[in-house]
Amino acid sequence: MDYKSEQQSEKESLSLLYECTNEYISLGDNSFKIFIDNKLKKISFYILFEYTEKYPDEAPLYKIVDVKNLSISLIKNVENQIQETIENNLGYSMIYNIVENIRTYLSEDIEEKSMYDEMIERQPKSNKINDSDNSSDDSEKDLDNYENVLELKELCEEKYRVSEEEFEAWRKEFYKDIFLQMKKNNNSENPTGRELFEKEKISILDPEFDEGEPKWCNEELFCDIDLDD
């Protein structure tokens, strides 16, 4: 077996698999490290690999480095998993199998606790209760502040606001002006706006009216308009 060629081929494959996610770091011709983490358990570390002269017929050298939140017992179990995978894959490229087996192992419901888990368990219950109370108080304060902002926010200045009565008076004048303008623009060959109004109570605001397609509407909308002024 051409060991150098086999090792180089595996390194290139690992680089393509893991380097794009910044999980693979090359350290030399025969060495590299691969990042492994479990976000749920808040643990992470690198496995540093170094090829021996006759790898893969020989086991690679390996070491767990840059450890974060791994207990000693969990490190021991990870090393046992690595050793077991090596024994099952001697004679074949095995780094990928080692990495993925460890990731699977960490994602399972393992009994070993991370240092983060142990720290949470050691935290006094009184502190947990206080933290919960403080969180609840903060949420209530945020809600009160949000409601206060809504109360203080104005849609427009008071001087620009109109009452319902003022709007109704404006509406009457608006329609009245439109009908009067329509009467002036109509010639003798066409019916006046009043005649059309008295006949079927058309909606002169519909744009289709200019195209000869009037739409009819409820006469109660115009019952309070004085057209004789």
Automatic annotation (TrEMBL):
Domain of life according to the entry: Eukaryota
Region listing for Disordered, in residue ranges: 122-143
Alphabetized Pfam families for the sequence: RWD
InterPro entries: GIR2-like, RWD_dom, UBQ-conjugating_enzyme/RWD
SUPFAM superfamilies, per the entry: UBC-like (SSF54495)
Composition-biased stretches (Basic and acidic residues): 122-131
Domain (RWD) ranges: 9-109
Record protein name field: RWD domain-containing protein
